[in-house]
Design brief:
Blueprint (H helix, E strand, L loop, with lengths): L4 E13 L3 E8 L3 E7 L18 E8 L4 E10 L2 H4 L2 H17 L7 H14 L6 H15 L15 H12 L12 H15 L7 H14 L1
Parallel strand pairs: 3-5
Antiparallel strand pairs: 1-2, 1-4, 2-3, 4-5
Helix pairs in contact: 2-3, 2-4, 2-7, 3-4, 4-6, 5-6
Length: 221
């Protein structure tokens, strides 16, 4: 058996495997996005039962196998229970994790996306922030990290000054301050329209985004 490896990361997805096991997808700083099987994690007294759920963030001890990893221990720093227990927050959180999975690969540096995902979930916990604004900022910064966002958008004269400033801020702001601004309702509608335009060029249909759109439209009615 290989030597144990400690990786810092967040569980993006989890699903049953076999009778008692759980298959997890974890975004890690050191190994990027990995698949890890937790043996017996679905047994009631398993020490891994709580640490193999989506949104869980911490340090995981794994063994590397031929096609996947085996998860044997976890030291959890944050469970994000308030997000998991709130339907609306959970919908946004699931979408953010689906985007993170889309943009990451195994054995590539997962640090930037992991950090973005973490500060974004923390932003969801801030009652002062609009969740739709958080979504747009997250999408934009994810595209920036992946080298897909056109920087010249911040200089587009057809956009209002407030929106150009907001875009320029997202492009350059450190993650710790990424969600440190708000917009007027009018500026936000324009900001969201710009971001939704770029989202159409992604080659992936996010199921969680479809749920979000339905939920947002229902709230407006």
């Amino acid at each position: 058996m290989s030597e144990p490896l400690k990786v810092r990361g967040m569980v993006l997805r989890a699903a049953p495997s076999g009778e008692y096991d759980r298959r997890t997808v974890i975004l890690t700083k050191e190994r990027g996005r990995i698949t890890a099987f937790a043996r017996g994690a679905r047994k009631p007294k398993s020490p891994l039962i709580a640490s193999t759920a989506p949104f869980v963030f911490g340090t995981f001890t794994v063994y590397e196998g031929r096609d996947a990893y085996t998860l044997v221990q976890a030291e959890i720093e944050q469970y994000f229970m308030d997000i998991r227990e709130d339907f609306e927050k959970a919908c946004y959180g699931c979408y953010f994790m689906e985007v993170a999975e889309y943009y990451t690969r195994e054995n590539l540096d997962g640090g930037p996306m992991l950090n973005l995902l973490y500060v974004t979930l923390r932003a969801l916990q801030d009652a002062r922030l609009d969740y739709e604004l958080v979504r747009c900022i997250f999408e934009m910064k994810a595209m920036v990290q992946n080298g897909e966002y056109p920087y010249e958008t911040a200089e587009d004269s057809s956009l209002s000054e407030a929106v150009r400033c907001a875009i320029a801020y997202v492009l350059t702001a450190p993650l710790q301050k990424l969600y440190g601004f708000t917009l007027t309702p009018e500026a936000f509608r324009e900001f969201r329209r710009v971001q939704n335009h770029f989202n159409r060029y992604l080659d992936r249909n996010f199921k969680s985004l479809d749920i979000l759109k339905t939920m947002v439209e229902t709230k407006r009615e």
